[in-house]
Amino acid sequence: MVTTEANPVQPSSASSSSQKLPWIRTPLIESNALSKVAGCRVHMKMDMFQPAGSFKSRGIGNYCLKAVLSRPNRPIHFYSSSGGNAGLAAVTASKSLGQHATVIVPTTTTPLMKSKIQAAGGTVITHGASWSDADAHTRALVAADPIGVYCPPFDAEDIWEGNKTLVDELLDEAVLEGGQALDAIILSVGGGGLFCGVQIGLLERGLAHIPLIAVEPEGAAGLAACLKAGKLVELDGVSSIATSLGTRRVARRAFELARHGNVRSVVLSDAQAAMGTVRLMDDERVAVEPACGISAAVVYDNVLRKVCPELGTGSNVVVVVCGGLCNPPLCSSHCTQAELTIVRAHRE
């Protein structure tokens, strides 16, 4: 099933405004390849088609929108310290709202991402060797700018509210053709912004029984670490090809929401993330980054059957295709020979 429509779901923050939303309603596509492996109906929620190329358009778009609505007829200069999808989303959203954005990035940010941010209309400032350095400089710039507004990458209620619209869309789809139920959702977790929005959406709609499979890479499994420790913890460091998920500490709210019984925490390897990325390209001609491919790997490597044994042939599972930016050579260069063997085996 394929459905698409621009901006039909309006969060409470924008319900009284005629302002066009900085995100769109994305297609929901049933995948024959994923369904065959899973033994049930698997649908892809194509948030890679958002204006900024990732689900970040929802949450950060809503954050920027609320800032604009709270300051009518006043200019705003948004500042973001994310050199990844969040920064690009901040620029894309601010431009759609008639505002400007500056993204402060560390020296580790790739020239490709810098050029994407600039092409979208943003200003790029390179500062510091780490995200922490860039973020500190970002906050200093905001403090010195009377019209400056800090735009966080994931840890804010307005961001979760925007991401919650994904659940509204899924339930509006009637998936679930013939009124069939939504039986599980698979999504990738970095800082927890998407996870928070989706889980809040499920809880508010009385759907706490629906399994929410939270997937992380071994080198950046912050949520899994929190659940194991029983408290909010910070990783010593992050190391994964799924760079969009590379956060040392998840949002506190993400940890709190993950303690509900419907959450299934899954940690996979970089090899599995690369495999999921390659298989989606092979099977669906969908180009995604490893941070998204790792969610597909839950299906391809039969992890879904292990964490949700209750699913049957008629069950409906949604994989959130959270962002698109495929770079097969990058996947290969970050995998060991043994890991590449796994990827090749899945392609054959």
From TrEMBL:
Subcellular location: Cytoplasm
Reaction(s) catalysed by this chain's protein: L-serine = pyruvate + NH4(+)
Enzyme class: lyase
GO biological process, one term: L-threonine catabolic process
Annotated GO MF terms: L-serine ammonia-lyase activity; threonine deaminase activity
InterPro entries found in the cross-reference section: Ser/Thr_Dehydratase (IPR050147), TrpB-like_PALP (IPR001926), TrpB-like_PALP_sf (IPR036052)
Tryptophan synthase beta chain-like PALP domain span: 24-323
GO cellular component: cytoplasm
Domain of life: Eukaryota
Major location (coarse): cytoplasm
UniProt similarity note: Belongs to the serine/threonine dehydratase family.
Protein name: L-serine ammonia-lyase
